[in-house]
Design goal:
- There is one protein chain.
- By secondary structure, this protein is mainly α.
- Helices cover 68% and strands 0% of the residues.
- It has one domain (7-195).
- Helix 1 (7-30) packs antiparallel against helix 6 (166-193).
Length: 206
């Protein structure tokens, strides 16, 4: 297994801090007119929103973090690293394409949906099926977290039609997506620290 550098812990750890900190501060700046239960994060980054600069900065920082983590996560399968990097790129594009303060934006929504897809698929694509691997790169946890993201997306779409708790659904999914790279990096570092090595063959055992 290729070693994961310790600096990947910084990039993966900063991702959820920037995302959650961004929507928290932007929500406070927006004031009581914003309802985090029924309104999406995109409203906070919309043109003319009081805390748009904070939310935009948070999304931009999130994208950079995902790109750096994908670069350093050498133990993961290449397809998963590419998907994580693609999720980072879409976060950058989302930050550069804020929606209007009232109404939706097809470009913003399409890029956000693509970003969700990349970040939902990367755990499965990054999994190591060849043998012993860090917990975060094992197939079962990878499939499980992707399934949870899919359920969260389904909840979001249903509540979007019913004008329900879309803000809660979106925050839970995006929070999970921002935290999972950190989980994978930590599991890789702990695995390497444990001194795991492939089993010895008959020749080396003798």
């Amino acid at each position: 297994m290729r070693r994961v550098p310790r600096w990947a812990l910084i990039s993966s750890g900063c991702a959820p801090v920037l995302l959650i900190g961004g929507w928290t501060i932007a929500g406070l700046l927006h004031g009581p007119g914003y309802d985090p239960v029924t309104q999406t994060i995109s409203v906070l980054a919309a043109y003319g929103a009081p805390g748009a600069w904070v939310m935009t900065g948070g999304l931009f920082g999130l994208g950079v973090c995902h790109l750096v983590t994908a670069w350093g996560l050498r133990a993961a399968a290449l397809a998963g690293r590419v998907a994580l990097a693609a999720g980072g790129v879409t976060a950058l594009v989302v930050a550069l394409l804020p929606p209007p303060l009232s109404g939706g934006s097809l470009r913003h929504g399409s890029v956000a949906a693509a970003g969700f897809a990349f970040l939902a698929l990367w755990p499965v694509l990054a999994a190591d099926r060849a043998g012993p691997a860090p917990w975060g790169l094992r197939p079962v946890p990878a499939v499980g977290v992707t399934a949870l993201m899919g359920l969260g997306a389904g909840w979001f779409l249903v509540d979007m039609q019913r004008h329900g708790a879309v803000g809660v659904a979106e925050r839970l999914v995006t929070c999970l997506q921002s935290v999972w790279p950190l989980v994978v990096v930590v599991s890789c570092l702990l695995y390497g620290k444990g001194g795991h090595r492939p089993p010895k063959g008959p020749a080396s055992a003798s």
